């Protein structure tokens, strides 16, 4: 017997099915913004569904579409590229399952993908001795490896979630992370960000509470495009125009090797933060993540057992 969906998952199944149906009927390739705009005409939305979520400023139903569309991507039902969604043949076939069936199959596909990420991390972390046998790790090292495995999967999940959200969400994320890291001055008054021409974020932050040192910032919410040396050169030129000697370049994608080599020889200080490092810092500073479970690793208290 199939377990009934929760209230949240029931809404998610309806809006996701509507989104995929709109995409199918619209020629299988549409702008994500157009799909989202059309959904309210296809699904009855009550006050709870329309309630604005404080964390990202979007109504609940819209957040669910963005959040659970990742399941469709990982299941091979949906392709995303620069704000454009495309329905795959497998995705079109899955729509025949109905709203609940499509949602459940997409969730299952995401769980399979997540399990593969964990297995990949585990297999890459095992060490072997010279005779080919797996080396038995001390308990504390096993715990540390497990933590890294879990965080490795979490990094992939975080980046997927970021890429499905708007540039406004990305701006808030950058602000919250920088504040959590101690930048921006008291209450974030030293943060000045605005939308860049390519959907990124540009601005500056105060390195200290008094605002004595300023760091210029550029953030690119790119999906697949690699940030190359010309992008960094343009950023360095902008720093020179402001007579600045410090900058941070953030991207959700990656930097080319040429870009990384270029910053090493600069007179100014430029820090490159790629998608993986961005997600790692979010985990480290508790931005966009919460504690799921906590474990304690205990050892013998030698003082307790001493009779001296």
Automatic annotation (TrEMBL):
Domain Restriction endonuclease type IV Mrr: 163-282
Positions of region (Disordered): 121-142
One GO biological process term: DNA restriction-modification system
GO molecular function per UniProt: DNA binding; restriction endodeoxyribonuclease activity
Residue ranges of domain Restriction system protein Mrr-like N-terminal in the record: 14-96
Coiled-coil intervals: none
PANTHER family from the UniProt entry: MRR RESTRICTION SYSTEM PROTEIN, TYPE IV METHYL-DIRECTED RESTRICTION ENZYME ECOKMRR
Protein name according to UniProt: Restriction system protein
Organism expressing this protein natively: Giesbergeria anulus
């Amino acid at each position: 017997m199939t377990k009934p969906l929760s209230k949240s998952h029931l809404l998610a199944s309806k809006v996701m099915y509507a989104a995929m149906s709109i995409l199918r009927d619209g020629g299988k390739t549409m702008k994500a913004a157009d799909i989202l705009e059309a959904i309210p005409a296809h699904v009855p939305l009550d006050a709870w569904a329309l309630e604005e979520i404080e964390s990202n400023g979007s109504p609940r139903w819209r957040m669910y579409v963005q959040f659970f569309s990742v399941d469709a991507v990982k299941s091979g039902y949906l392709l995303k590229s620069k704000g454009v969604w495309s329905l795959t043949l497998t995705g079109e076939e899955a729509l025949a399952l109905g709203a609940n069936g499509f949602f459940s199959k997409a969730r299952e596909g995401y769980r399979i993908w997540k399990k593969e990420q964990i297995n990949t991390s585990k297999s890459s972390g095992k060490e072997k001795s010279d005779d080919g046998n797996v080396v038995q790790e001390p308990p504390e090292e096993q715990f540390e490896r497990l933590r890294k495995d879990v965080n490795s999967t979490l990094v992939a999940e975080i980046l997927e979630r970021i890429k499905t959200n708007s540039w406004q969400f990305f701006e808030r994320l950058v602000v919250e992370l920088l504040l959590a890291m101690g930048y921006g001055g008291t209450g974030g008054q030293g943060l000045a960000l605005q939308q860049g021409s390519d959907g990124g974020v540009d601005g500056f932050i105060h390195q200290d509470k008094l605002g004595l040192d300023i760091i210029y910032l550029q953030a690119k919410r790119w999906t697949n495009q690699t940030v190359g040396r010309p992008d960094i050169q343009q950023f360095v030129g902008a720093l020179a125009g402001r007579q600045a000697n410090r900058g941070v370049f953030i991207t959700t994608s990656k930097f080319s090797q040429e870009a990384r080599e270029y910053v090493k020889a600069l007179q100014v200080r430029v820090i490159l933060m790629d998608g993986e490092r961005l997600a790692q810092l979010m985990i480290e500073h508790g931005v966009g993540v919460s504690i799921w479970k906590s474990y304690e690793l205990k050892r013998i208290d030698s003082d307790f057992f001493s009779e001296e």
